[in-house]
């Protein structure tokens, strides 16, 4: 399982974002933090003409990851909270409570959880 607190700690320790991609040289693509040191956060080396697009895509991916990783961790944490609510509702239902159990009506349960966003 992913260690989400560690991933967030790593993101917080990195240069603040958003990072940007820059094509400063014929040989390399650079990823940098425009609000920090002008030193590159990462570089990708260009090869012959065919890998050029892949290296450019790698630099773009690295630059976007500075913003995307914390957002993905937050979305995953939110999904885990919602899943926990579903599991709690199912557990409560399975304990033998009498009456209409909302957990048996999947559409109602999903609608209720989505309204809580």
Report on the structure:
This protein is mainly alpha-helical and 117 residues long. The protein has one domain. It is 54% helix and 10% strand. It has 3 helices and 3 strands, in the order αβββαα. The protein has helices at residues 4-13, 52-94, 106-115; strands at residues 20-22, 28-32, 42-45. The protein has a 3-stranded antiparallel beta sheet with strand order 1-2-3, with helices on one face. Helix 1 runs antiparallel to helix 2 (52-94). The chain starts with a helix and ends with a helix. The mean pLDDT is 75.
Strand content: 5-15%
Placed side by side, the strands forming the largest sheet appear as: 1-2-3
Number of strands: 3
Largest sheet: 3 strands, antiparallel
Radius of gyration equals: 22 Å
- Whole-number total of structural domains: 1
Helical coverage, percent range: 40-55%
Question: Spans of 5+ residues with little confidence (pLDDT < 50)?
Answer: none
Q: Report mean pLDDT, rounded to a whole number.
A: 75
Helix count, per DSSP?
3
N-to-C terminal Cα separation, in Å?
A: 25 Å
Derived from helix and strand composition plus strand pairing, the structural class reads mainly alpha
- Overall spatial form: elongated
């Amino acid at each position: 399982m992913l260690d989400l607190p560690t991933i967030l700690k790593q993101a917080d320790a990195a240069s603040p974002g958003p990072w940007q991609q820059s094509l400063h040289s014929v040989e390399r693509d650079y990823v940098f933090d425009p609000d920090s040191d002008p030193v590159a956060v990462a570089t990708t080396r260009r090869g012959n003409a065919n890998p050029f697009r892949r290296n450019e895509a790698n630099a773009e991916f690295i630059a976007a990851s500075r913003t995307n990783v914390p957002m993905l961790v937050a979305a995953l944490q939110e999904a885990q909270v919602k899943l926990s609510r579903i599991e709690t509702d199912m557990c409560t239902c399975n304990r033998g409570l009498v009456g209409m159990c909302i957990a048996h009506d999947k559409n109602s349960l999903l609608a209720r959880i989505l309204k809580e966003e």
